[in-house]
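Notes from the 1:1 (GR / supervisor)

We went over the backlog. Supervisor wanted to see one worked example end to end before approving the batch request, so GR pasted a single chain during the call. The sequence is below; no edits were made to it. Supervisor asked that the structure be written out right there so they could see what the output format looks like.
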Amino acid sequence: MLKKFGVLVFIVALLALAAAGCGQEAETPGSGEESLEGESFTIGIVQIVEHPALDASREGFLAGLAEAGYKEGENLTVQYHSAQGDQSIALTIAQNLVNDGVDLILGIATPAAQAAVTAAAGSGIPVLFTAVTDPVDAELVNSWEAPGVNVTGTSDLNPVEDQIELIRTLNPDVKTIGTIYNPGEPNSVVQVELVRAKVEAMGLALEEAPVTNSSEVAQAAQSLVGKVEAIYVPTDNTAVQALATILQVAEENDILVVAGEGDSVKSGAVATVGIDYYTLGFETGLMAARVLEGADPATMAVVKGMDLGVSYTVNLAAAERMGVVIPEEILAKAEVVEE
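Structure output shown during the call:
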């Protein structure tokens, strides 16, 4: 009888241990590791206006996030909005994103970045930017090396001096260069200041045609006819948005057009030497991933697009339409030749 009782106790003990083991296995799905793997984020994007360069930076940004493991539709939700060139709309969009409690905001172009920083102030939501020429001048960060605030990103400051030199290479007889830009865009003001200094150093003249919105660009381009041999279009969102009207005037009057970025060349300008906006956005996406993983934007240096590499872009068909012959030395350097 005692032997039978002992066997019974042994069996009960075994069953109790098995039950305890099953209970431990049932808790495994709630472990910290699986919770981390299942974490998802929401990112808000405010873009000042849609044109090829800024669109490319946005596509690169999402590709950079995907490369880091944050994929839209899986563990990433993206709220994208265009301000259609209106700063007040950009601010409203950014404020709505803050109200929605997104995990991070990306501002594409200086006005959008300024709107995002203003709206996110005091919210704890980190802001990244891309396609911003001078983030210090735009009062987005305290310094390039150490932003000091919950904001960082990438700069699209192009080799403006080299672009002006390219004009003279393409037209050695140039005496006066025209430029169309919106003085209300801080990014454009920075570029035009560089243009003025370079043109003066080269002993040339500069004819400025300021605009306040894209509807004024056609008239501004027409005002340069008979005064200039070349037009320089900086990475000004207002001018680039209406690039087709500049190109039409230039083609009708055999005026060389050199742009501040490659997508404008693909759209019909003759040439540029500059950064790649997709690459710029990709780098920003990698930075955003680090922020989502806990990195402090205040200590993350702003990345300069020129440090990621520059390249020549030429458009042979556009050159023919404007009566320009591209030297072999430029063709030999060009990474993209549009036929």
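Supervisor's comment: Residues 1-36 have pLDDT under 50 and may be disordered.
Batch request approved.
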